[in-house]
Design brief:
Distance between the termini: 46 Å
Radius of gyration: 21 Å
Structural class: alpha+beta
Mean pLDDT: 95
Largest sheet: 4 strands, antiparallel
Oligomer: single chain
Length: 264
DNA sequence: CCTGCTACCTGATGGC
DNA sequence: TGCCATCAGGTAGCAG
């Protein structure tokens, strides 16, 4: 995407730009050039020559790169309907149409003068893949919170980027109960949790990149989590470590999966 | 300030 | 077959 000029921007479903008016996104984005693409927590940022295009995929957002409408390539592929793919926003680039699609329409696309104009971005905590994320930093953060570890790990203002899958997985690797209070975690356990977080995210990245996502294929869906997942959505099945059945637990409005046998 | 709950959406699945 | 409840990778906004 780097260096591509946004020839036009179409909003098919204005819910995706809320609370920003769709036409504001369009006029701000049109004619701009993408300088750089980066990630902050779960946000995807397109740095433009003026301002930023910011995407958040929430639960079901996806990006597609489709052939230009009416092109030979589009006809060969049967011109997939925007409605069928639930495309909310479409950016016309030289290399094709970059489409933000989202079945549940919970994802968002905004234009911002700078990332700090997003409350969600400003308040993001430390990136667990960054150098600065050390055992010591994790220990300090944990010590300041009385919440259950599961809620702590999913709090984007503490550590940015961990969601429901990887919080369950990291706690399993660290042999810590999702219900354990953050400030009741011993030094040795902090060390285990830190290692677990970094390992889980690293392995997840491997799964996400091999095979690489097929941006140009609208049928493509992410598969391969099964290879790395040990407890997530595996209630009733044996724990790969101790053999006892994995349990599902409601915490903070989300499902938490863990092994009561070896997670304390 | 901190925490927990609910709304926001659509679609898949399973029980009756 | 249809109807209803529940669940799904997340966060903003609000009440207490």
């Amino acid at each position: 995407m780097r260096g591509q000029r946004i020839r036009s921007c179409r909003v098919m479903h204005a819910i995706a730009t809320r609370p920003q008016p769709a036409d504001e996104l369009c006029w701000r984005a049109t004619g701009r050039t993408i300088r750089e693409v980066r990630r902050r927590g779960k946000y995807l940022l397109f740095e433009l020559d003026q301002g930023y295009l910011v995407m958040h995929f929430r639960l079901s957002g996806q990006l597609f790169l489709l052939p230009h409408q009416g092109s030979v390539a589009a006809r060969r592929e049967g011109e997939p309907e925007a409605s069928a793919l639930h495309i909310d926003v479409e950016l016309e680039l030289a290399c094709g149409r970059l489409c933000f699609a989202d079945i549940r329409h919970l994802g968002r696309v905004h234009w911002l003068a700078r990332p700090a104009d997003s409350r969600g971005i400003t308040r993001l905590g430390i990136d667990p893949l960054a150098r600065e994320f050390t055992r010591g930093v994790l220990g300090t953060l944990l010590g300041r919170s009385k919440r259950p570890l599961k809620n702590f790990l999913m709090d984007q203002e503490k550590i940015a980027g961990i969601g429901n899958i990887y919080s369950s997985e990291a706690l399993w690797y660290a042999r810590l109960s999702p219900r354990r209070r953050a400030n009741r975690v011993a030094t040795q356990e902090v060390r285990r949790l830190h290692k677990a977080i970094v390992n889980v995210l690293g392995r997840a990245l491997e799964c996400c990149l091999h095979p690489a996502p097929a941006l140009r294929n609208p049928q493509w869906a992410f598969e391969g989590l099964e290879k790395m997942v040990r407890v997530y959505q595996r209630a009733g099945r044996p724990c790969p470590r101790c053999g006892r059945p994995i349990k599902r637990l409601g915490l903070g409005g989300r499902s938490s999966f863990f092994c009561p046998g070896c997670q304390r």
